[in-house]
Amino acid sequence: MTEAVTSPGPTSSGPTSPGPTSPGRADRSLPAFAEELVGTLSVHSQYVLHGSIRDIHLVRHDKDPDEGGPERTYDAHHTLTEVLWNALWQEGYEALIRFDIADGFTVVAGPAAKEVRELLHGRDATRPGRARRADAPVHLADAERTLGDIVSGWKQQGRQQKTPDSRTRPDTAQRQQPYRVVLLIDYAARIPTDVTRLSDAERDFFLNCLKLAEDARPISSPGSGRRLFNPVIWLADGERDLPTWLVAGSERVRTIGIPLPDLGSRRRMAELLAEEHTAASAPEDSGDGGPVRFDKQRRPDEHDLDTFARATAGLTLRAMRESARMALDRGMSFAEMRDAVRVYQLGVKDNPWQADYIRAQIKKGEADLRARVKGQEKAVGKTLDILKRAALGLSGAQASHPGSRPRGVLFFAGPTGTGKTELAKSVAKLLFGTEDACLRFDMSEFSAPHSVDRLLGAPPGYVGYEAGGELTTAVRNDPFRVVLFDEIDKADKGVLDKFLQVLEDGRLTDGQGVTTYFSECVLIFTSNLGVRKRTGEGGREGRVAEPGMPYHQLEEIILANVKEHFVEGIGRPELMNRFGGNVVVFDYIDAKVAAEIFDSQVGNIQRVLREDQGVHLRLSDEAHQALSSYCTADVDNGGRGIGMLLETHLINPLARALFDQEQLAGTAVTVTGVRPATDGTVALDLRVVRTGAAGPGPGR
């Protein structure tokens, strides 16, 4: 489809641009990329615009002298093509041409649009739009020749112009000056099939474009006298979408990035959309007052504007406009625009965090959380404080611009086997009703360079590009979840750098250019950092946080060592600053807690045998006491160490005894004794009885 390009002024109409002068309509403030392009046309013949090329952009205009009101300027939003053309025609350019691999060459606008269209396609191409048959492919070799004509302005040097069928065109033979035109190459990334593996035709096309940049000559402007190139402007999502040797191979080729809008631009856009929203949601004149479309008809205030602008951090102005349109469609007031942005980003309006459900879950589940994670009262207490803060939306509230940061961030540090991973799973169940809401990543699997591609997706042209990232895909599918990064200290530095963006902005863009938002997630990082440290002259690693230390002393040591690791060890002080006061230190488990964990794990073994195999397991008091002594003698490895010893001393002997049984259902197994074995483990005295469907009788 051909896009009509009009003047930025509100009185313009039709596809033809205005003349080079427009009293009272001069642009007061063009976007920076347009100013840069127009200001360098005398030295650069080609440009690569990359970034937010599909966004709309704000331009500040002067009002007509006869227009009323105290304000003498106003803002209006325009497409990239409109912004560029309405800056370039004032420099004397006569036509804007667009080229893409699907439609070929199309004349979009300009006072010489008719003549340029005939030069491109012949006399039969007098109408705007596609001049090429839909079934006629675009050949890059043909495009190269046309590019040369466009850059030279069809400079004839006394020769008569020819149509594509080689007939002389008498009515253009008197044109002596070259045409001053602009070429936009749209969807430039779609010209090569794979930018890293160009075909012969693609390589020749881009090489000739590079040569054309060097061979081009500026053309004098009759109006201003400036000698300016007929520019070729490539539009690409990123610089790497085009061959590197084209982008960086000539001083004549300039790259200009178009960034996402800053807070100031989003605030101006919010004001503009507020006016449109107020006008569109006004009561219809039905003669009797008419019903009001919306419940809330108050005019948007400064708080509404600021909230809308801050809620759209990381979004384009176009996304803001679409969010506002969707709000109108759904009958939402401007004060509810933050919810409209949520629908636009996540596809859901309902926010579980703002409902009473999560607050009720935290109140109800607090005791269960403390019972499930044993011996960590202070760690669980601090975790609950952070979750309550998240439920009230107060995470990062002290910042002037909290943006769209994650709902909550926790860093669990402390000795191994003390319940860090268990607490993370418990948090997921507490908040979202199931442990399945906990998305776990073992960061030891992301210790190699380029392993970040697994999380975010591989770049274009690399293996795994189509699959996307494991992290970004999962969060897009379900944004309300706990994301657990286990043993974060083992991750590659490239992975850690990505966490900076997540913690600060609450979003990541994957290898396919799709943005994922983490604003509704709770992020939990775990690590054993701080317990051990290299000390002494030999630099040997030793334990600096000992069992039995007072908690406040152990906490102080671990916090200091964690900070030292990020600041001095890996040179990422900014990452430590993002964690801030969210570091939760876990204590060593004591003998009492170890016994409780032992009983809990024995109970789990009994439950699994009963539910899966129909086997009833009991331990005599003597066996229970002896086995507990073996498994809890050394608690340095915490609950995980107790589990490993139970596996060796109880589960393995049970498996040997039950494996050869012809029928397990209805079997009762009693551990009557525990004694040392010759291999350093223990041997069990077992009594196996077939009881049918009956239970095993009294006992543990």
UniProtKB/TrEMBL annotation:
It holds the Pfam family ClpB_D2-small. GO terms for molecular function: ATP binding; ATP hydrolysis activity; peptidase activity. Residues 589-684 form the Clp ATPase C-terminal domain. GO terms for cellular component: cytoplasm. Keywords: ATP-binding, Chaperone, Hydrolase, Nucleotide-binding, Protease. One of its GO terms (biological process) is proteolysis. This is ATP-dependent Clp protease ATP-binding subunit. Residues 406-574 form the AAA+ ATPase domain. Residues 162-172, 293-304 have a biased composition (Basic and acidic residues). SMART domains: AAA (SM00382), ClpB_D2-small (SM01086). CDD domains: RecA-like_ClpB_Hsp104-like (cd19499). Residues 1-28, 151-174, 276-304 are annotated as: Disordered. Residues 1-16 have a biased composition (Low complexity). It comes from the Bacteria.
